[in-house]
Design brief:
Blueprint: E1 2-3, H1 6-35, H2 39-70, E2 71-72, H3 76-105, H4 107-121, H5 127-166, H6 171-180
Length: 181
Amino acid sequence: MELLDSKTIRSEGAKAGLVFGTISGGYIFLSQWLSGMGDAGGIINLILQMGKIIGLILLMRHYMIALNTIYDEVDRRQTFRFGLYTAFFSALITAACAYIAYAYVFPAAIQDVMETARQMMGSKMDSNTLRAFNDMENSFPTYAFISYGLWCFLYGTLLSFILARTLPEGMMMEEEDEDDE
């Protein structure tokens, strides 16, 4: 076993972030595809969303325990930093997937939502509000990139903070010793 330095923390965080970003980005595409299936797609989407959240929490915990197992003397600060890098790289990949999904793969989804909103608002919008609404429609993929990126990073940071505090230092060494007896 070897000691953990900050370059290794970044490298391991980037690898884990790739996995998390791929799962979250894939979910974005899958949920957009399922939205065209009506009520059945909505129910499937809800079940997948719950599974994704629970699965990603358990996966982050697994990665943090694995980090403590592979490297010697990993403290809570290093574990949190690993989670922070994982959150950062995952957020970048997820945000890029959101941008691609809304700008190139499913642009009609934005148009449908905006058209529904226009119909609901109807005559309540003046010309300035309508122009701002149309500008927002054109910029929606950029807004999606920023909002998905921020949300994923903040959620991952909070999750990392909580998990790094709940995993006792040296936990894996103690569990291995109990298994050997």
